[in-house]
């Protein structure tokens, strides 16, 4: 009993007692999907159309875009399955919706992938594909759908095809697109990187190989939170112990990592109250590196959405309240963050990958070339070399941080060309 009271009084990550989290963990293990004994969706009481009566149950029906859809393999397969399993409507619907021959499934995915590559979809909106003939290029849209089926919905392979087209490799369009006017895809449109793309680019410039840093905490949390509430051997102490373990996962993981790394692999410094942690490229262990309280992991490895004030949220990360909630609009806080925020501190820190790359060469011209190759993936032009030479002559070694800051704020870096 005393052990249970102690666990209940322990504080979790959010500062709340574990007793306050008990309902959450129990609720997450009691979710279930089941069929109702009756159809509760009914027409309104004042329904006055001829195709139904007031308060009449609404029978489920499949979407049919054209009379020929009934002869489509996806529809025929659903009817066939219905004869053998008339009660398994949900399973049959899922199979129909994701069927390769569904009139809109492959087309919808292909259209979204096209928007990802070109910055604008083949339709006025990706949310409505009821009428493909109203798209900017109906023939192309249908062809992309067949290609999606041909590659068996392999998105990596599909994007490889798009990126190798002459249309994608053409010069980006920089003129403003008129609202409602069709776009003929003479090339992709010039657009800013998404918040996630920009953050991952910065992680690469700071860490070198961000893929080596994984957030294993999520998997551990999933295994810890799962429990069979119907197990007769499950007692209150077991539940409370699991709750305590969940809240200790972060501390345990960090302790394990800190004890398993070599000093040559992890260097931590404290400068002006800001912690900067870097690793060598040979490090193969999972670590949680931080800078100013921010975890240095790829966007996909971080909790979503990011907390208030985080770079990802400031630069348009979706709040996950609606589908496609992210945006790439420019704001004043973004400018301020790039001027004196934590991101530019990370990149201009002497322990970042860029500075470690510069340390491998001795001459200033080689150092400048290393900076340009790291950030813009190209060598500096003659004009840029002259500007950099003047900066180095005026400010010495301190000019390198200013050069890095200037390059990460250019349109060439921030925008998908």
Walk me through this protein's architecture.
- With 417 residues, this protein is mostly helical.
- It has three domains: 85 residues, no CATH class; 149 residues, no CATH class; 69 residues.
- It contains 18 helices and six strands.
- The strands form three sheets. A two-stranded antiparallel sheet has the order 1-6. It has a two-stranded antiparallel ribbon with strand order 2-3.
- Helix 9 runs antiparallel to helix 10.
- It is globular, with a radius of gyration of 28 Å.
- 17% of the residues are buried.
Compact overview of the structure:
This protein is mainly α. The protein has helices at 2-9, 22-28, 73-84, 89-97, 105-118, 138-150, 155-163, 195-207, 217-225, 236-260, 311-314, 332-340, 342-347, 353-358, 364-375, 382-395, 399-408, 411-414; strands at residues 191-192, 266-271, 274-279, 290-291, 294-295, 415-416. Strand 2 (266-271) and strand 3 form a beta hairpin.
